[in-house]
Structures are given as structure tokens and as C-alpha cells.
Design brief:
The structure holds 2 protein chains of 2 kinds. Chain A is about 50% helix and about 20% strand. By secondary structure, chain A is α/β, with parallel strands linked by helices. Chain A folds into 2 domains: about 140 residues, 3-Layer(aba) Sandwich (Rossmann fold), CATH 3.40.50.2300; about 150 residues, 2-Layer Sandwich (Heat Shock Protein 90), CATH 3.30.565. Chain A has a 6-stranded mixed sheet, with helices on both faces. In chain A, strands 8-10-11-13-12 form a 5-stranded mixed sheet, with helices on one face. In chain A, strands 7-9 form a two-stranded antiparallel ribbon. Chain A is elongated and about 90 Å long. The two termini of chain A are about 50 Å apart. The longest helix of chain B has 13 residues. In chain B, helix 2 runs parallel beside helix 3. Chain B has a single domain, classed as Rossmann fold. In chain B, helix 3 links the parallel strand 3 and strand 4. Chain B is built from 5 helices and 5 strands, in the order E-H-E-H-E-H-E-H-E-H. Chain B has a 5-stranded parallel sheet with strand order 2-1-3-4-5, with helices on both faces. Classes of the chains: A alpha/beta, B alpha/beta. The interface between A and B is medium-sized, with 22 and 23 residues.
Chain lengths: ~375, ~130
């Protein structure tokens, strides 16, 4: 049970004590709230007195009469708006000044309640305004948490971007001072490593661009009918040179003409990531099998490899941003740690599913299910 | 020239292979012996196995706070061994070290934070200072 502070601002003593009585043992609860709210009532007979209380302590809800002896209710409301207090205001007003009450709601009061009111009417109004306040606070909190996640992402990102720069800078300084010899050949390993780090950074930047596209993408998904088999074939061809270097053989088992309504760029990102991973995390002389099958509600695409595999523990974090499985088997493989998180985001955006089966030293199998899009 | 036995041991734990090899290069040139590990887990094993005269640990490895954990373990086992936490993430990126509560301050007892990008002269000075050479 948590307690909300309600301030009743009315020059009629009877109204104030009446409200206090009505709300005394009243609680508000909703199925989606963890706890019920009860109310602690404070009273103010004038607008000036109300401002003192509001300034001195955090008031959650204000029941505000407009017609007051000194400054008017609407002045109190304006003050609250100016200061940006996290307070919900309900105007109490007689029928004669309904027009004013409407004006008050447009200038920031949550609602108004005509006088006279029954206890039931008061309770219903308080229930309403409590719900409103609760939702407003929840929304604000969630926005803040969103910012928090963003912030963490940026700090990891800056780490990932700076590390290769530091590495390359370090090698260049050793070369600049000719610390290990005066022939270019003495620095071959450092040059190779620098080029490798540049390659890694380029991958990261490309993946980031993909990710930005997805995040800003909801509006820009360009849906077209495409042949999924053809899209997979193009991806496989793109990575053929890398497969040849690693002596990895790619096998495709794709039916003709499987038509899917989707954004072709997004499919390309999905297949490129899965197929390039299957090659990168494979063993010398290994194999990659890519299979696509129509299903009742869509398509299933399977990318299987005979590579190093993923441990149970690592599987859980595989689809998170910037997660790279680091061990002796993966230490020479470059990657941004974003690829699979991008794949997951994209597949999710089609209401599909991506799953992984894997055994260490035997290989991994990524299974993507893509349901037909409803607007086809 | 000191004999191998007399050389001080510097432990370097970093998951960036290039940073590790550059650091090793400079530290060995300064006349120290290097013990190294390239992830937090191996680092923990290395700490169990051997006592260095000084340790330089990376902050973000498998975990974002790997360096703090290793620093804690080092200090617990060898309270007198100085620890340097090296990181590419600094205040300028907005990342705080999480040293907010007194409790955190009491157990993350790194002797120094080193911003990545090696400045060999500075590093040498700091190592000498911490080893009281």
C-alpha cells in the first residue's frame, strides 16, 4: 500500500472536512498496479495557503476550487504548470462556472468535478485521477529507462570504436619510433594486425548503419514480393570468396520460386549475417548447409554449419547487442557483436522467430521462421 | 643487466590481443617480466596461480566490470600488489566507473586508472612509482 498526498483547496470548511471523511478509508487499486493507493488529505482554505503547501512538500493530487478569497484557483493551476510539478489537478466548480472549468482543463487541469457532488462521484473522480497520475508516472519512468539503455549502448559502442583506433595508433607509434627495426618487413605483423582492425571497424560501422536503418525503419519498410531462394542464393554468392579462402563448402537446398512479401534489404541483412557467421565460425574444410522450406504459415530457413559450436551458457546471450563469444576458438575472428542482434530485431519485426541449436565442436544450426505478412 | 630471477613480474590481463601485445612489448622493454591472460576467466586462474609485483587489467572484457572484479580478487589475495585498471572508456564518454557508493569505493581499490592509448613514458613512470623503484 502506498499513500498519495491529496491537497483540498476550498474556502468552505464543510467541503474540506467532507472530502477528508469520504477519502478516509478509501483505496484505489487496478489489476496492473503492484499495490493499492490510499490517500492522505491536506487542507488549504486559500490559494496562497495552497501554494505554500505545494512548494513545501510533494503533493500528488490537488482538488482545487476556483472561487477563492484571494488568488483564484486558475492562478494556482498556472503556478503549478509553470513550475512543472508532478501533480495531477482536478478543479472543483459549481455548475455556474462550467465554462471556466473547461478553460482550466485546457490549461492543464486533468479534469473537473461539478459541485455539489456525492461521495460516489468524488470517489470515482479520485479513482480516475489516480489512474491518470499512475500512468503518467509509469510512462515517464519507462522513457527514462529507455534513455538508460541507450546510454549503456553508447558507452559500449564508444568502447568498441575506440579499441581498434587505440590498437592501430599503438602500432603506428611503434613504427614511427622505429622501435623494432628500420626495415618495413620488421613491422609486417603490426601492419597486418592494423589492417585487420580496420576491417573489424568497417564491419562495425556497416552493422551500425544496418541497425540505424532498422530502428528508424518502421516507417520505411519497403515491402515487395521477392523470391526468397533467389535472395539466399545472392547472399551465398557474396560470401563464396571468403568460403573458398577458408576451404568451406556451401550447399544450398532451395525450392524454386518461394515468394515472400518483405523488405528485400532486410532479408539480405538477415541472410548475409547468418551465412557469413556460418563460414566465419566454421573449421578449415568445413561445410555450410542452407535450406529453405515453405510451411503452412510462411517459410523456414535453416543455416547449418560444421563449425566450432556455441556452449549452452553462451547461447543465452547470443542475440544481445555487442555480445561476442570470446574464447580461444573465436579470438582470431573479427565481428562487431551486432550481427545476430540485428537478425533478431529484423525477424521479430516480421513476427518471426530465430532459434539456435548447437553443440560445441560439432556445429550450429540457426533456424529462422518467417510468417506470411498479413497485409499480403 | 638483471638476471631473470631478479626481474619484476607484471601481470597484464586484456582481451584486446593488440593492446596486450603492445603493452607486453613496452613493459618487457622496460625490463620487466610479463605474465598475461586474455580474458577475465583466464585472468582469475592466473591470479590464483601466480603473484605479480604489479597488475594492469582491462576494464571491459567478458563483463563490463571485469576489471573491477579482477582488481578485487587481486587485492583480496595480494593486498600489497598495486593494480592499474586500463580502459578505453573514460569520463568523456559519459561512462562513470560505478564508484558511487562508499561500499563500491571500499572494494574497488585500483591504485590507478589508465586511459587506453599507451603513452610509454607515462606508463613507465607510473609503474616505477607504484613499484617504488
Amino acid at each position: 500500500m502506498s499513500t498519495l498526498k491529496i491537497l483540498v483547496v476550498d474556502d468552505e470548511e464543510g467541503i474540506r472536512s467532507g472530502i477528508r471523511r469520504i477519502l478516509k478509508n478509501y483505496t484505489v487499486g487496478y489489476p496492473f498496479m503492484d499495490e493499492d493507493f490510499s490517500f492522505e488529505v491536506f487542507e488549504a482554505a486559500t490559494g496562497e495557503e495552497a501554494l505554500d503547501i505545494i512548494t513545501g512538500s510533494e503533493v500528488d493530487i490537488i482538488l482545487l476550487d476556483n472561487k477563492l478569497p484571494g488568488i483564484q484557483g486558475i492562478d494556482v493551476l498556472n503556478h503549478i504548470n509553470e513550475k512543472g510539478y508532478d501533480t495531477a489537478v482536478m478543479m472543483i466548480t459549481s455548475y455556474a462556472s462550467l465554462e471556466l472549468a473547461v478553460k482550466a482543463t485546457t490549461s492543464g487541469a486533468h479534469s473537473f468535478m461539478p459541485k455539489p457532488f456525492t461521495p460516489e462521484e468524488l470517489r470515482a473522480s479520485v479513482e480516475n485521477i489516480t489512474k491518470h497520475l499512475f500512468l503518467r508516472r509509469m510512462t515517464r519512468k519507462m522513457k527514462q529507462e529507455g534513455r538508460e539503455i541507450r546510454f549503456q549502448f553508447l558507452s559500449v559502442l564508444s568502447h568498441e570504436l575506440k579499441s581498434p583506433l587505440n590498437a592501430i595508433e599503438g602500432y603506428l607509434k611503434i613504427m614511427q619510433d622505429e622501435q623494432v627495426g628500420d626495415k618495413i618487413a620488421d613491422y609486417k605483423n603490426m601492419i597486418d594486425r592494423s589492417l585487420e582492425r580496420i576491417k573489424g571497424m568497417r564491419t562495425l560501422i556497416m552493422d551500425l548503419l544496418d541497425m540505424t536503418k532498422i530502428e528508424s525503419g518502421k516507417k520505411t519498410k519497403e515491402l515487395k514480393k521477392i523470391d526468397l531462394s533467389q535472395a539466399i542464393r545472392i547472399s551465398a554468392d557474396t560470401f563464396e570468396p571468403i568460403a573458398i579462402q577458408k576451404n568451406v563448402k556451401i550447399h544450398l537446398d532451395l525450392p524454386d520460386n518461394i515468394i515472400y512479401f518483405c523488405d528485400p534489404d532486410e532479408m539480405e541483412i538477415i541472410f548475409n549475417n547468418l551465412i557469413s557467421n556460418a563460414i566465419k565460425y566454421n573449421v578449415e574444410g568445413g561445410e555450410v548447409f542452407v535450406t529453405a522450406k515453405p510451411e503452412e504459415n510462411g517459410f523456414k530457413v535453416m543455416v547449418e554449419d560444421t563449425g566450432i559450436g556455441i556452449s549452452e551458457e553462451d547461447k543465452e546471450k547470443l542475440f544481445k547487442e555487442f555480445v561476442r563469444i570470446k574464447n580461444n576458438r573465436t579470438k582470431d575472428i573479427t565481428g562487431s557483436g551486432l550481427g545476430l542482434s540485428i537478425v533478431k530485431q529484423l525477424v521479430d519485426s516480421y513476427e518471426g522467430e530465430v532459434k539456435v541449436n548447437s553443440k560445441l565442436d560439432e556445429g550450429s544450426c540457426f533456424l529462422v521462421t518467417l510468417p506470411y505478412q498479413k497485409n499480403l | 643487466m638483471k638476471s631473470l630471477e631478479e626481474k619484476r613480474n607484471i601481470m597484464i590481463i586484456d582481451d584486446d590481443p593488440d593492446y596486450l601485445s603492445q603493452l607486453r612489448f613496452y613493459v618487457e622493454n622496460m625490463g620487466f617480466n610479463v605474465l598475461s591472460a586474455n580474458n577475465q576467466k583466464d585472468g582469475e586462474e592466473l591470479i590464483d596461480r601466480s603473484k605479480p609485483d604489479l597488475a594492469i587489467v582491462d576494464l571491459m572484457m567478458e563483463n563490463k566490470d571485469s576489471g573491477f572484479i579482477l582488481s578485487y580478487k587481486l587485492k583480496k589475495k595480494y593486498p600489497e600488489v598495486p593494480v592499474i585498471i586500463a580502459t578505453a572508456v573514460t569520463a568523456e564518454t559519459g561512462m562513470m566507473f560505478g564508484l558511487e557508493t562508499e561500499e563500491e569505493k571500499s572494494w574497488i581499490k585500483a591504485d590507478m586508472y589508465l586511459e587506453k592509448g599507451i603513452r610509454p613514458d607515462q606508463l613507465h613512470r607510473e609503474i616505477n612509482r607504484l613499484l617504488k623503484l
